[in-house]
Amino acid sequence: MTKIAVAGIGGVGGYFGGLLACYYQDKTEAEIYFFVRGENELAIKQRGLVLDTTHGRFTAHPKKATHNSAEIGQVDYLIVSCKSYSLTGLLADVRGCVGPNTVIVPLLNGVDSGEKIRAVYPENEVWQGCAYLVGRLSEPGLINETGVSRVVNFGSEQGNAERLKEFEFLLKQAGLDARVHANIQRIVWIKYVFISSVASVTSYLNLALGELRQHEHGMELLKRLIDEVLDVAAALDIDFGTDVRERTLTTLFEANPETRTSMNSDFLKGGLTEVDSITGYVVKRGKDINVPTPAFETIYEALKNK
After folding, report:
1. Is 112 helix (H, G, I), strand (E, B) or coil?
2. pLDDT tens per residue, the chain (306 residues)?
3. CA nearest neighbour of 67 among 7, 14, 108
């Protein structure tokens, strides 16, 4: 029996974890656990996790939903899906799930989560991953998914090939569009080019994606941001192998016009945001390697004190 725990039951973790729990709740191949806190934990314990999606409404009942990782015990795979500002605390809290053979799979915005996880769990196999999904935890125990893309990408250049295949199989069995990649770094950075540029400009100007597409100054600023993050990536020897600039713009114009980036939504709520990992990271790495990022610097300075 394979044990999979999902730590962070928000839009992404809740959606993918929910599909896994739905499929495997009556199966013997795998057990699915949720590491979850607060009102979300209580709601899931009372009625399950409800997934309201573009292809149906489902209710997921994991093997256990708990804020105490010791109640879950050591797992084979730990999917970490939280906001970047919560990662350090979450890694400490899930220690009861992590044994010597636990593979940790991050599904976070940004490109530096893997190195942060390895700093805490240096003996464990830590893969890279990213997801394409428009999903929100709209209330405790309820995930709303409104996009057309629902892909989870993962991989590791040094990872165990058999375990990569096993994990992909388990996810695909549950109906997830799971894709293992030999060059996962390229895949993660392709998403980061989109997230860092689009989330930064939409948060700075407070625009939904459709509004951005009609905003002349916003689009000019977006293109400068894309160029700057690509300059940083090139200096770091990131091999994209595709026309990422055009791909980023295409993704923007194919998206639901009413969609807001998660960082923009977080600013509107007035709480913590991922501005350091999404916007500030480009500024920091640019300074480290002497690559100018003036547009990112302007936006970062405005947003970090907002």
Report:
1. coil
2. 999 999 999 999 999 999 999 999 999 999 999 999 999 999 999 999 999 988 889 999 999 999 999 999 999 999 999 999 999 999 999 999 999 999 999 999 999 999 999 999 999 999 999 998 888 899 999 999 887 678 999 999 888 899 999 999 999 999 999 999 999 999 999 999 999 999 999 999 999 999 999 999 999 999 999 999 999 999 999 988 778 999 999 999 998 899 999 999 999 999 899 999 999 999 999 999 999 999 999 999 999 987
3. 7
Cα(196)–Cα(282) distance, integer angstroms: 8
Smallest CA-to-CA distance from 263 within 7, 85, 15, 18 is with: 85
What does each C-alpha distance from 231 to 19, 82, 219, 224, 225 come to in angstroms?
A: 38, 28, 18, 11, 10
Three-state DSSP state, 149: strand
227: enclosing H helix or E strand: helix 216-235
Measured between alpha carbons, how far is 141 from 10 in angstroms, rounded to an integer?
9
Q: pTM for the complete prediction?
A: 0.93
